[in-house]
Design goal:
The chain is mainly α. It contains eleven helices and no strands. α5 (56-64) crosses α11 and α9 runs parallel beside α10 (128-138). It starts with a helix and ends with a helix.
Amino acid sequence: MSLHALNNASREDAEHLLRQCCTSEAWIAGVLAARPFASPAELIATVDRVWGQLAEEDYLQAFDGHPKIGDVNSLKAKYANTKALAAGEQASVAQANDDVIAALAEGNRDYEHKFGFIFIVCATGKSASEMLNLLQARLPNPREQELANAAEEQRKIFHLRLEKLL
């Protein structure tokens, strides 16, 4: 897919492409409303501007579309439209030992119970142990700070996914 193709895609096709990057309907609508983009830099500036204007409920919708770190089944079954792009992002989890995977699963449960949304981290280039350390370091945060942290991580993720698409 190219920037030209994104600019000229039908609304339905463009929505599908953007949904692979982020599942917030408000984000998708905002990005679509800004088409056409003169350059990749304009697209990136737009996706960031739209992201920064969203409400908490929009962030939570985006988080819900992201598979849980360490939940390999969610990479395969949940949100099939992001599967191809998300699979490589968590490749190191598949190579982790059982203790680290169990600790990630337990940490994810604790995190979701405390904050009301799943742990979001841009997993690309991070080992399972590194992700576990990040999860444990963020768990003591207040909810407001963690919402901001998760939103920033999700922003990094959709940047990577846009780069893969374009």
